[in-house]
């Protein structure tokens, strides 16, 4: 919820706003000691990897903002959770920009992976029954 508020998104289906330009991201100097953005002008970059210099700076901004409202949490835990969450945000950004056909294809791939995962985690005896074989 805090991330949605910083990104000025109403919900998970809302479009991403305040995405930095490639030029701005490339010009960013992490050694300058200045953050890439502020909580008021939060700029997560869904086109870069979660541990890019820009997005690590975004993680620091998020952590500071979050801890100012929820001081009982560990700084390391909050930062690590945000970095993990950015992978989901990148996927969501791609999905929102995809065509209906691309979304369908992505959904098919996910379903296929889930079916394979379920079969590989099913005990062998249960698989033999589901395939019409006797366990004996």
Overview of this protein structure:
Helix content is 58%, strand content 0%. The model has no long low-confidence stretch (mean pLDDT 86). It is mostly helical and 136 residues long. Helix 3 (53-69) packs across helix 4. The chain has helices at residues 2-6, 22-27, 53-69, 75-97, 100-120, 124-130.
**Percent strand:** under 5%
- Please give the alpha-carbon distance between the first and last residues: 53 Å
Beta strand count = 0
The value of Rg in angstroms is 21 Å
How confident is the prediction overall: mean pLDDT? 86
Q: What is the oligomeric state here?
A: single chain
Q: Biggest β-sheet: count, sense, barrel?
A: none
Number of helices: 6
Order of helices and strands: HHHHHH
Which range best describes the helical content: under 10%, 10-25%, 25-40%, 40-55%, 55-70% or over 70%?
Answer: 55-70%
Question: What is the approximate shape?
Answer: globular
* Poorly predicted tracts of residues: none
Entry keywords:
single chain; 136 residues; mainly alpha; 58% helix; 0% strand; globular
Q: Summarize this, please?
A:
It contains 6 helices and no strands.
Q: What does the secondary structure layout of this molecule look like, with pairings?
A:
Elements: H1 2-6, H2 22-27, H3 53-69, H4 75-97, H5 100-120, H6 124-130
Helix pairs in contact: 3-4
